[in-house]
From TrEMBL, chain A:
It comes from Mucilaginibacter lappiensis. This is Uncharacterized protein.
UniProtKB/TrEMBL annotation, chain B:
It is an enzyme of class 1 (oxidoreductase). PROSITE patterns: FERRITIN_LIKE. Its EC number is 1.16.3.2. This is Ferritin. Gene3D superfamilies: 1.20.1260.10. Belongs to the ferritin family. Prokaryotic subfamily. One of its GO terms (molecular function) is oxidoreductase activity. CDD domains: Nonheme_Ferritin. SUPFAM superfamilies: Ferritin-like. It is found in: Cytoplasm. It holds the Pfam family Ferritin.
Amino acid sequence: MITTITTTTHWTDVFKTSAGAIYQCDAERCWYVDFAGKVAKFDYRCLLKLRKAVYHIDIEQTLLNTTKDPDVEIIFICACDHCYVLSLLQIIALKELLEGTFVMLELNHILHERLCSIAS
Amino acid sequence: MKDLLRIKSLISTEIEALLNQQVKKEALSSSIYLSMASWCNRNGYDFSSDYFFKQAEEERVHQLKFYKYILDMGGNAISPEVTGIKQEYNSFREVFEEALDQEISVTQSIKNIYARCMKEQDFVTMEFLNWFLKEQREEEYKARRALELFEVIGEEGTGRWQIDKNVGQITYNSEA
Ligand SMILES: [Fe+2]
Ligand SMILES: [Fe+2]
């Protein structure tokens, strides 16, 4: 499912790795996740759900798993239009991307708080 | 860049997780008290049974308070799974000993959330928690008082019957 981007709203880089990037769109109050060959739009709830889904995957356990099943995880997020089918390496990359993103969002939050307390 | 996290929710993800944990703890307390009410009833301690029924209801109210607060602040309240409730007790006294243990652990976990709020300067949640801190004072007092009855009345003879009768009368009314 690939979202075609038609609008020319301003996106701010939140976090980038060699595997992908996440942008924030202030006007739409959402994020765009550029990963695994598609750009998907996530609102607040869905981004948190994505984070939870990715963080929940036990990477170590999957590595140690000796069954013949392919090392592929399907990330399906309830009430979200997107679904990811990812290899283990991609999962690790997505996790890194999300971790970085949330650190940046947290930092942004701290900056906003500090600015507010100075302004008042 | 807008602070979208803050726009959507007043509480941080960490506080939200801790509050959800507390929702579960209150639900657990409620179920434990309900099980105690059943045990007391089956063993002829009707006043204590009523006492525990009331406690179970109170814990349910606590659970909903936390639950609604999370939602009101823009968070995601999670309906908890409660399993492994002990159904049998070895003695009348053991029931009250475990009731006190449960209250102490609830107080401790509310203190932990409070500590986290202080670290984050989440004064809004701290103010919300104040009610619970005061409530725990009463809860621990009542649980301790019940155990005290075992000491002052004694379990010999008609002691347990006396204790049961007095459990129903325990109240806490401090103006402080
Ligand atoms: Fe409680
Ligand atoms: Fe309680």
